[in-house]
Inverse folding.
């Protein structure tokens, strides 16, 4: 039931953000820890979110001339990182939420946006790199999604993929990636840095829910991922892993 409501919640929260004139660029859990690329002073407020993208892209052979597709772009924070930190000019981005895309268009002019569903996305364009962060757990099938990604990549193209994955499912996810034609170049769990990020930022981003947890149902804590959410507990116990991968299409 709540799972079915999630897309509507993303749409609703983006519409509210738009009405409030919110400048929130990112919707991921963030990462606290060292990254090989430094966060710029102007991004201090969003440094944990930027760092999660930097960590995802750290092992990817990324260069300015690449054509990049971001799937599940949210409010455009990932496109912002691709433009500002890696100098990428040719970016296409898709998301299922029209309200998120409207916010993203204002943040990162020059990006081609399309409202699309990740699992069914089709295009005649082929890309050098596909980026997908913290979105695939919301899809109807990760296996179908990986096939879609493979189909839109050039031969030898790269896929930077990161998300929350239940520990017993990791093997199946990696099998599905290989079945879709990918070689795993790098794989890592970021639990420590993501847990630190939730602990540090839950109270800053969601002060009322963090300080007065009883006012909100567990599902609300789950949607925003506060320190009172089940997702936070599962990351701490290790039952859920925050996995990142760099993959190459064979
Ligand atoms: C947690 S947010 C992450 C957004 C962004 N990657 C970031 O880190 O800020 C997940 C995003 O995935 C999008 N999404 C969920 N299901 C989708 C689907 N089936 N196809 C495309 N986008 C989807 C949501 O609308 C939302 O913008």
């Amino acid at each position: 039931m709540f799972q079915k409501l999630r897309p509507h919640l993303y749409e609703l929260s983006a519409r509210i953000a738009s009405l409030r004139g919110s400048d929130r660029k990112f919707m991921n859990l963030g990462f606290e820890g060292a990254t090989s690329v430094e966060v710029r002073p102007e991004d201090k407020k969003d440094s944990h979110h930027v760092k999660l993208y930097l960590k995802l892209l750290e092992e990817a052979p990324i260069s300015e001339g690449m054509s990049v597709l971001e799937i599940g772009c949210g409010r455009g924070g990932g496109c912002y990182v691709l433009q500002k930190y890696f100098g990428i000019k040719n970016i296409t981005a898709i998301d299922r939420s029209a309200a998120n895309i409207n916010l993203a268009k204002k943040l990162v002019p020059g990006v081609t946006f399309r409202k699309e569903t990740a699992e069914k996305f089709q295009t005649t364009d082929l890309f050098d790199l596909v980026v997908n962060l913290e979105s695939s757990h919301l899809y109807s099938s990760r296996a179908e999604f990986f096939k879609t990604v493979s189909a839109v990549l050039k031969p030898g193209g790269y896929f930077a993929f990161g998300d929350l994955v239940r520990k017993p499912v990791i093997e199946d996810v990696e099998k599905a990636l290989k079945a879709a034609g990918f070689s795993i170049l790098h794989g890592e769990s970021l639990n420590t840095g993501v847990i630190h990020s939730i602990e540090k930022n839950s109270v800053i981003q969601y002060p009322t829910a963090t300080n007065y947890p009883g006012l909100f149902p567990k599902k609300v804590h789950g949607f925003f991922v506060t320190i009172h959410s089940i997702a936070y507990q599962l990351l701490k116990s290790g039952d859920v892993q925050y996995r990142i991968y760099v993959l190459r299409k064979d």
In short: The chain has a mean pLDDT of 93.
